[in-house]
From TrEMBL:
Keyword presence, Metal-binding: yes
Family per record: Belongs to the metallophosphoesterase superfamily. YfcE family.
Entry keyword set: Metal-binding
Cofactor: a divalent metal cation
Keyword Metal-binding: yes
Calcineurin-like phosphoesterase domain mapped to chain residues: 1-145
Enzyme class: hydrolase
Pfam families, sorted: Metallophos_2 (PF12850)
InterPro entries per record: Calcineurin-like_PHP_lpxH, Metallo-depent_PP-like, Phosphodiesterase_MJ0936/Vps29
Name of the molecule in the record: Phosphoesterase
Amino acid sequence: MRALIISDSHGWSKELQIVLDRHRNEVDALFHCGDSELTADDPVINGVKVVSGNCDFGTDFPDDVIEQIKGVTIYVTHGHLYNVKMTHVPLSYRAEEKQAQIACFGHSHVATTFQENGVVYINPGSIRLPREHKDGTYCICEYSDSTIEVTFYNYEGKKVTELSRQFTKE
């Protein structure tokens, strides 16, 4: 299973389209972890599972999404409802409650990935307003029989090696 994960594009439409089109045909799913600042009928996010962030107003998107793709359970939320800027504990409880193998979130604009209690957590960062890393980022997660590989890319599509990680399934 391969999924593109992006977050916090904050109104970028053309730029978001470029990233999605770059990878659309090489992944099984496209996820946006909120703060797109787009509406559900925007053609840019056609085919993308999008959740609501704290800068997304209205009721266009759900607070979270749980998807089963090729036998892998993926939980997606923005993170503001789980206080992810301070701790990952509430998010971890929710991911475990949903029996997720992968939990995706945004909100902090800080690109990171880590594994805890058998769940791989992914924050793709922000393509528009990154923090703690000079380039805007997004990532692709590849879930295989024995490993989970999270590869980060900058907006131009160049691999960001220092952020990318591979995990062994627990």
